[in-house]
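pasting for the record
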Amino acid sequence: MERFNILLELVGFTAFFAGLILNIIVSNALLSKVILLLALLGVGAFIRNPYLVVLMTIVLIPSRYFYTPVGKDVIHDLKKYLFNRT
């Protein structure tokens, strides 16, 4: 029985990391929300520690905005706007 509980925890952690990575990679907003929902359901269903589930939920929800590609022209415009000395 103990091995089964450890296996369920492992499935929960796998769902968390897979959801986190896929949520960052996917560029479609609707698909990202579906991935996020499935990852949150997997974490809530398989991990028994409620504090860990809350922590993983706090990490997963804003994970869509962890990596946002920014072009060089945007960085150049920001530098020009922020450091304008005229």
